[in-house]
Amino acid sequence: MSSTLLEVTRAAHEEVERFERLIVKDLQNEPSNAKDRLFQSHRVRHMIDTISVTTEKLIEVYEDKDSARKDEVAALGGQTATGTNVFSAFYDRLKEIRDYHRRHPAARVVDANEEYEAMLKEEPSIEFSGEEAFGRYLDLHEMYHQYINSKFGEKIEYAAYLDVFSEPQKISRKLRMTRQYRDYMVNLLEYLIYFFQRTEPLQDLDRIFSKVVTEFEEQWMGGMVEGWEKDDKENGHAPGEHTAIDLDYYSSVEELMEVGPEKLKEALAGLGLKTGGTVQQRAERLFLTKHTPLEQLDKKHFAKGSRSSEQNGDVAALREADNSAEIALMEAKVAKLCDFLNETIERTKENVVKKQAMTYDEIEAEREDEETQADSESDDEDQQIYNPLKLPMGWDGKPIPYWLYKLHGLGQEFKCEICGNYSYWGRRAFERHFKEWRHQHGMRCLGIPNTKNFNEITSIEEAKELWKRIQERQGVNKWRPDLEEEYEDKEGNIYNKKTYTDLQRQGLI
């Protein structure tokens, strides 16, 4: 019954419409505090993701690449290989319905609205550290320590770091080209994205970054990206570093000799010329380049391997340009996220400065006040409960018994790489998460359907390998109706569908 393609299509449309009504209904309720508002945003985001997944399935059905939907519609109209028989199709379907209810006499209509309405009361699980205080503040301590222990950073206080982390252009270009700085920017960008997704789930981050990339590429081609402008300075070197000496100021070899042997050697090396010999020989060799282009100089003046060094230098320059663009793009994304999180950054600064001026007792009192305030904001939250073992809360809002905690293995951690290395505590939560939105979103990003075949699979590589094997097996075992469906003529001869249709078209049957 429900396995027919048309029934699956109908159910998918119904699910999409029901989620749309739920989203409207949820957004009509004005949250009483910031916590409820965040829960509402995550619920709506989850429903939007579910609608997207269901819509993608519907698109595949309507594309009908295997003509399954077309055949099913034709069968409903009574079209068969021998002709059209509407009454036969009707009574066959009626018989199928009666057989179904005969096999399932206790079957009843389930009101799905109750299950969907319960979703409006759910509180999504959102992880925030103590420093983040449920999304009120940023926790940049890891990036701060990486900054002050690096060559590009300064030994500054955490409060001062909050003022400069969003302004990377103040760091010299040469230091920003290092691998250490690149790793720092990767970590900073990943944290800001993770924080933004937790606090602003309804924002379309992909569209925001797409606009950032478009604007960045235009500015990069024009050399107008702040801190990466195209000028006479390349890779942090001063103008004319390769020549090191401006020959226009010298009219003779003797005057050039006064520069000294080291500067002459450096200038010759920058041009790929030999650097050996006395001071006079070096000056004479360099003075030749004042009126003679390098291409016209005798090969004996060039150092061995200078041509290959030049080629290697070109390759290195291209690689350096790519690295520069990558780092500059990360800086642009960080700047955009900082614009969105500007209010949060300011609150974080104020909180850090306030805590620096407080004693330990005052900090503890402030923390208790914040917890009390957070409790008073929610009508469903009770008073603080003593929970030194940090046991999960039960249905009554109190910590569950320790024996139950051990029985269900809630101290056992399961990590899922597909969910972004998210941790699940206890076997039951781990098994349940394969049907939840986070795992479904991860599978969708990999382009893999979240079916039962992938239960217990938490590694991205394992999921890709299994999906590849399933596709290969489906290619071999896929039923091909044109070649495998059998037809019999009046004389009892057996043909496959394609041959039978061709013979019938030619009037041979």
TrEMBL record:
Record keywords: Metal-binding, mRNA processing, mRNA splicing, Nucleus, Phosphoprotein, Zinc, Zinc-finger
Organism placement in taxonomy: Eukaryota, Viridiplantae, Streptophyta, Embryophyta, Tracheophyta
Family annotation (PROSITE patterns): ZF_MATRIN
Cellular component aspect of the GO annotation: spliceosomal complex
Region listing for Disordered, in residue ranges: 360-383
Gene Ontology molecular-function annotations: RNA binding; zinc ion binding
Location(s) in or outside the cell: Nucleus
Keyword match Phosphoprotein: yes
Signal peptide bounds: none
Organism, scientific name: Tripterygium wilfordii (Thunder God vine)
Protein name (record): Splicing factor 3A subunit 3
Origin: domain of life: Eukaryota
Matrin-type domain: residues covered: 414-445
Similarity section: Belongs to the SF3A3 family.
Main location, first listed in the record: nucleus
Amino acid composition bias (Acidic residues), ranges on this chain: 361-383
GO biological process, one term: mRNA splicing, via spliceosome
